[in-house]
Write a structure and sequence with these properties.
single chain, alpha/beta, Rossmann fold, seven-stranded mixed beta sheet, globular
Length: about 200
């Protein structure tokens, strides 16, 4: 599989923070993602009151939407700006506390308790900190992860999933020789080998 010049591309945490600070967030969808609405049944599988994980969540509006219908939402994002914007834009009161296991990390939690957003590197998290999830909405995470870190990312995701978990993954298809990413091109064959 030829992923062109992307194989060695690395986007630093500083670059991501800068995107949020500069408002360079074309990847954020104000109205929520149509594919989540389309495939919501697959994610929920007739179940209610699920724990749903949003890796690299940004300020995804779907977090509030799923919390409002009775699910518990947990997200992780490197940008504190994005997380604070999420709570502000939805007029949601929240409290902030340190995450004792991770130096410098914070957890921002809605006062209703059903939305918990961790501000840290996703690689600092584990199931001992987060617990396990019934569902994962990966709308822009795998395609944002540096190509060299994909295996590490997927291995972490596998440890966070309950046995009957549903994982919804959105990728983008294009010629990787014409765009350096992110979003990165992840061919279907690689998705199959990563997730097994």
């Amino acid at each position: 599989t030829d992923i062109g010049s992307q194989k060695d591309r690395v986007v630093s945490e500083e670059e991501w923070l800068q995107k949020w600070e500069m408002g360079n967030t074309g990847f954020h969808k104000e109205q929520g993602h149509p594919l989540l609405q389309k495939y919501l049944d697959v994610l929920l599988n007739g179940r209610s009151g699920l724990r749903i994980f949003f890796p690299l969540c940004g300020k995804a509006v779907e977090m509030k939407w799923l919390a409002d219908v009775g699910h518990s939402v947990v997200g992780v994002e490197i940008s504190e700006q994005a997380l604070k914007d999420f709570f502000a834009e939805h007029s949601l009161p929240y409290c902030e506390e340190p995450v004792p296991e991770i130096s410098g990390a914070k957890k921002l939690q809605s006062t209703s308790g059903n939305i918990s957003l961790y501000c840290c590197s996703i690689y600092d998290l584990s199931s001992s900190i987060l617990g396990k999830f019934d569902g994962v909405w990966d709308r822009g995470a795998l395609v944002a992860v540096n190509p060299r870190d994909r295996q590490r990312y997927v291995s972490l995701m596998m440890t966070l999933m309950e046995e009957n978990s549903s994982y919804l993954l959105v990728t983008v298809s294009y010629d990787p020789n014409k765009h350096k990413g992110p979003p990165f091109y992840v061919p279907e064959s690689e998705i199959k080998s990563l997730f097994g």
